[in-house]
Amino acid sequence: MVHQNENCFRLNHLDNSWDIETYIANGGYEVWKKVLAGEMSPQEIIDEVKTSNIRGRGGAGFPTGLKWSFMNRAAPGPKYIVCNSDEGEPGTFKDRDILRYNPHALVEGMMIAGYVIGACAGYNYIRGEFWEPYQRFQGAIDQARKAGLLGKNILGSGYDFDLFTHLGAGAYICGEETALIESLEGKKGQPRFKPPFPASYGLYGKPTTINNTETLASIPMILAKGGDWFCDLGVPNAGGTKCYSVSGHVNNPGNFEVRMGTPFKDLLELAGGIWKGRELKAVIPGGASTAILPAEKAMAMNMDYDSIAKAGSFLGAGSVIIMDDQTDIVKVMENLSHFYWDESCGQCTPCREGTGWLYRVLKRIRSGKGRPEDIEALKDVSGKIMGRVICGLGDAATIGLTSALEHYEHEFRHYIDHGCSIYDKQ
Ligand code: L3W
Ligand code: SF4
């Protein structure tokens, strides 16, 4: 049996799960009250988060407890907690449902994180298209403030802390943490060089912790049930549950919260299996920035960092894109290359120019006018982008394509030799 909805989605089946009454009736804000009462020190909370073995859910998988420990709570001057809800990775839509169905877990998680790092305020940067999720989250902040859980002198503790939301304006790059910070400051969203990391130079140049929505929304349950509880749900290298967005050629696409390490084939079954009675051809397991895997590798892997890495890809943000046995991989890559070209912020030449080259060559191949040298050109341009740019977008633009050429080069060659896909009748 596959265990489901033990953490972020645990309230989703309830009516008005986003309402503060529902949240409180199910144990919500108990941890926050304990923290304010001085029953858990910041160091004890960090230790518990380390014990939970939670790794960042935004894509990179950085250990959350370690990230929090980079902040010096006692240092003078403002510090900030920032939540990244700018969910824009193609295939990713799990944070959207946390905001819609369990916004108070995120409010509580942000307040606890803010307290631990000594922040004076927190900001949630929400994807601009997420109007309903934005309203639910803002509604949760308003309810928490009205209940005296947020604001000045919270519950008579003498502690002041407030939360604010910020809506993005449609740029994927603002999901990159330093571009997000620039955008929050009112500037054009462009990534900064790292280091310095936000922990030393973040929002308004001040120490900042930035975590993903799912990460922060997991904190109340980790502290309520204990780090060991969360850790034991997962695998040795990553604790807990994970929300996976499953899309593509399945009968029942959607979000599924399961334990880290759940076999991929069980997740596929939860999503209703492959549609139209077809077979699985390929999977992108972690969002468009991760390598594509052929069916046999995917069917043998489990949904955790190490197992997916062994199969040749990355867990990323947990966005599982399923492709059936009639999928034209060249068309998929043309589509993705257009996305990266369109979303490149343009400040690094290899990314700005290279993503356009990749898109134009793939478009030419797809139009039936590909040249024999085009495959080498795709590899060459990818090699000139990878590792030579400021942020992950440039690298990501090459990862899917490089893996597609590794596993499906014959499909590209078929286009070049015959002017059509392997599925077209000649
Ligand atoms: C202090 C150090 N802090 C690292 C922090 C750093 C960041 C975190 C991870 O990219 C990936 C990207 C996408 N001192 C530190 C330190 N940190 N060393 O740790 O850092 P990093 O640079 O490894 O990753 P990143 O820039 O945050 C995220 C991939 O995720 N992705 C999808 C993302 C999509 C979404 C979405 O739509 N929601 O997030 C999928 O694979 O390509 O590789 O906080 O500051 N020494
Ligand atoms: Fe901008 Fe691309 Fe450079 Fe990232 S890699 S900073 S998106 S130009």
How would you describe this structure to a colleague?
With 426 residues, the protein is of the alpha/beta class. The protein contains 17 helices and eleven strands. The protein folds into three domains: 214 residues, NADH-ubiquinone oxidoreductase 51kDa subunit (Rossmann fold); 84 residues, Roll (Ubiquitin-like (UB roll)), CATH 3.10.20; 90 residues, de novo design (two linked rop proteins). The strands form three sheets. Strands 6-5-11-8-9 form a five-stranded mixed beta sheet, sandwiched between helices. Strands 3-2-1-4 form a four-stranded parallel beta sheet, with helices on both faces. It is globular, with a radius of gyration of 22 Å. Bound molecules: ligand L3W and iron/sulfur cluster.
Outline of this structure?
With 426 residues, the protein is of the alpha/beta class. It has 17 helices and 11 strands. 44% of the residues lie in helices and 13% in strands.
Topology:
Layout (H helix, E strand, L loop, with lengths): L19 H6 L4 H7 L5 H11 L11 H6 L10 E6 L8 H8 L1 H15 L3 E6 L4 H16 L15 E6 L9 H8 L23 E5 H13 L1 H7 L7 E8 L5 E6 L2 E2 H7 L9 E5 L8 E2 H5 L2 E2 L1 H7 L7 E6 L4 H15 L5 H18 L7 H12 L6 H27 L8
Parallel strand pairs: 1-2, 1-4, 2-3, 5-11
Antiparallel strand pairs: 5-6, 7-10, 8-9, 8-11
Helix pairs in contact: 3-10, 5-6, 5-7, 6-7, 6-9, 9-10, 14-15, 14-17, 15-16, 15-17, 16-17
Cofactor: [4Fe-4S] cluster; FMN
GO molecular function, one term: NAD binding
Protein name: NADH-quinone oxidoreductase subunit F
